[in-house]
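Hey team,

Sharing the Xanthine phosphoribosyltransferase run so nobody has to redo it. Sequence (189 residues) first:
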Amino acid sequence: MKLLKEKIKEDGKLIGSNILKVDSFLNHQIDPKLMAEIGKEFAQRFHKEEITKVLTIEASGIAVALMVGLELDVPVLFAKKKKASTMDGRVYTGKVESFTKNQVYDISVAAKYLNEDDKVLIIDDFLAMGQASQGLIEIVEDAQAKLAGVGIVIEKGFQPGGKQLRKQGVRVESLAIIESLEDNQISFA
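Structure output:
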């Protein structure tokens, strides 16, 4: 997606050779016009899949998922990193290790919002090691729902997450794949 790549080049900040900081437009401060275009792009890529739910993980994936849900006209569901005291009844859970925070989370989704009749599109802002996507796939499988695929705004192609998901047979659509962050340069695949 050309617009996204331009925004990454203009406003992305490198931290070492493996962290790309995009908090000025994607995951802290959010550029709503860019989010709208991202939502349209994912909806176009997955429009034939008969998706009934968009699933993400709090917090950075919510803005993107909301725009995709709006375009596909389906509900957006997000996995919580801490089970809220108001979350009653049965829940589906998964484990996620955060690459940037070096922390393991138990994520959960209320079972009443996800079932075997659903066809789910997972959406997230980043794909590095693939842990968030794997945890969300675990939840989809526990619910006996069908997985339409995984939509990623920025994939770090030099890390194994995308390759592992594709090797498992998961359809992964990434809008920008970073090939390298070496020598203080952002290179796209």
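Residues 122 and 133 are 7 Å apart (CA to CA).

Ping me if you want the raw files.
A.
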